[in-house]
Amino acid sequence: MAMALLLNMYRKEEPLSQVVFCGSRVALQMPLAGYLIRWSGLVSADPQSFQSYMQKGKNICFIPGGYEEASLTSQNQYNYYLEHKGFIKYAMKYGYKIRPCVAYNENKAYQTIDKFYKFRLLLNKFKFVGTLFYSKYFLILSNPNINIEMVVAKPFEVPQIENPTKEQIEEWHKKYIEYVTQIFYKYKNQFDSKGGDLYGYQNEQLKQLKPKL
């Protein structure tokens, strides 16, 4: 998914060429790989950089779950890390709309080891990657014949509040998660009818996220 988005940056007629892609500051500093990541156009997703682009009105693409969501990846179900809420705060502060993207079958590109989540998330706190995965081709190439489908949802709108309270951020983050859950199940039968359900990780627990009836 990331490479597809990055390649689109070089098609100047594409709207994606106007998007700022944000990623982990640690990834940008890695030997060799960090150079390639910076060359591809990724910038740091730290709060200072994030806000500097929002102050200029730039469109931003990022993964809210970050390292933690990668550590929770499972080919058996879809896991969403729920404890990053800063993007809701900034969207409210700078008057941004949020367009969630749901990737179906991306979690099947590699086999995952669905154990030691707490330890792996602890590693993330020290900026170490906690993913455990392999494929038919060991760690290099993904499994073949995986059709990854991407749904880009309609914008989710939040009220513009210059200094939102913690309660307001919690309220709108909850509504955002409900919206993403609705989108996930709306298209699940079309793109991954036999796949697992959507789960959210919060307070050291994975709980199934269910759409409102």
TrEMBL record:
Subcellular location: Endoplasmic reticulum membrane
Highest taxon of the lineage: Eukaryota
GO cellular component: endoplasmic reticulum membrane
GO biological process: glycerol metabolic process; triglyceride biosynthetic process
Annotated InterPro entries: DAGAT
EC annotation from Swiss-Prot or TrEMBL: 2.3.1.20
GO molecular function: diacylglycerol O-acyltransferase activity
Membrane topology: Multi-pass membrane protein
Chief location: endoplasmic reticulum
Pathway(s) it belongs to: Glycerolipid metabolism; triacylglycerol biosynthesis; Lipid metabolism
Keywords annotated in UniProt: Acyltransferase, Endoplasmic reticulum, Glycerol metabolism, Lipid biosynthesis, Lipid metabolism, Membrane, Transferase, Transmembrane, Transmembrane helix
UniProt record similarity statement: Belongs to the diacylglycerol acyltransferase family.
Protein name: diacylglycerol O-acyltransferase
